[in-house]
Amino acid sequence: MVTTLKIAFVEWPEDLSTGDPQWIELRDSVTAVHADILVTNELPFGPWLANGPVFSKDEAHLSVRAHEKGLEGLIDFALPAVISSRPVWNGKRLANEAFVLENGVARPLHRKQYFPNEPGWFESEWYAGDGSGFAVADVLGIRVGVLLCTEAMFNERARAYGKQKASLIVVPRASGVNVESWKIAGAMASLVSGAYVVSSNRIGRSRGGAQFGGGGFAYAPQGRPLEVTSSANPLRTLQLDPGMSRFAQGAYPCYVSELE
């Protein structure tokens, strides 16, 4: 049985590439903390596609290739597990696919199903859902659920992960400067699920003008705040104790069932 795991989360810059000088610094900071699981921000590599209101097949191909190259960089971390997201083809659009890189092998975890459609975040023009749902997966011996950015705003999904006995819900984000609303969503996701909730976010301004707010965060079960990233501390860690999740999932409000 897993006792504790060390989880790292970050705020990483817009338009990241493993060929950038800053990648070496990011890599070294991650490897120095000896984490069991690294949670990255949403679609961490290359420029942010969803600035544009019109889908471009050429730009979509570039994003796919940037993330394929980025995967090689994540493998070089040699961590037990990395949880991130990447664009993959889904018919004539892309899917935003969360995946885990576990012991050097990538496997899908979840595809994003909720998409905003507004300036800076025209995601519904670029990505399509597929009805594949929300299911927990085993990662390093614990049950993990994924909520990709906007999906964290829908508490019923976090509650359902709690019913599936998730110890950890990860929330990779590419969200704006209003970090407080995301903290509220993270705290509520933890409260209704009984799980740890860990989120990483993009930071900086995209070429198209979208401003990302950073502010990765972590909550322990029952909505207890742990750590928040900042420009001074763009990487934070926590110790995850699955026993805390098991306790919280038997306590209020997680035990409450809807009357039929």
Task: Describe the structure in your own words.
- The protein is of the alpha/beta class and 260 residues long.
- The protein has a single domain, classed as Nitrilase/N-carbamoyl-D-aminoacid amidohydrolase (4-Layer Sandwich), CATH 3.60.110.10.
- The chain contains six helices and 13 strands.
- It has helices at residues 21-32, 57-76, 123-126, 155-163, 179-193, 242-249; strands at 5-13, 37-39, 81-90, 93-102, 105-111, 137-139, 142-146, 168-172, 196-205, 211-213, 217-220, 224-228, 235-240.
- Strands 1, 2, 3, 4, 5, 6, 7, 8, 9, 10, 11, 12 and 13 form a 13-stranded mixed β-sheet that branches.
- Strand 2, helix 2 and strand 3 form a beta-alpha-beta unit.
- Helix 4 (155-163) runs parallel beside helix 5 (179-193).
- The longest helix is centred in the N-terminal third of the chain and has 20 residues, at 57-76.
- The relative contact order is 0.18.
- The mean pLDDT is 96.
State the secondary-structure class.
alpha/beta
Low-confidence stretches: none
Number of individual domains: 1
Q: What's the CATH topology name?
A: Nitrilase/N-carbamoyl-D-aminoacid amidohydrolase
CATH architecture: 4-Layer Sandwich
Assembly category: single chain
Give the class-level CATH name: Alpha Beta
Output the radius of gyration. Answer: 17 Å
What is the global morphology? globular
**CATH level-4 homologous superfamily:** Carbon-nitrogen hydrolase
Helix content: 25-40%
Tally the helices: what do you get? Answer: 6
N→C terminal distance? 36 Å
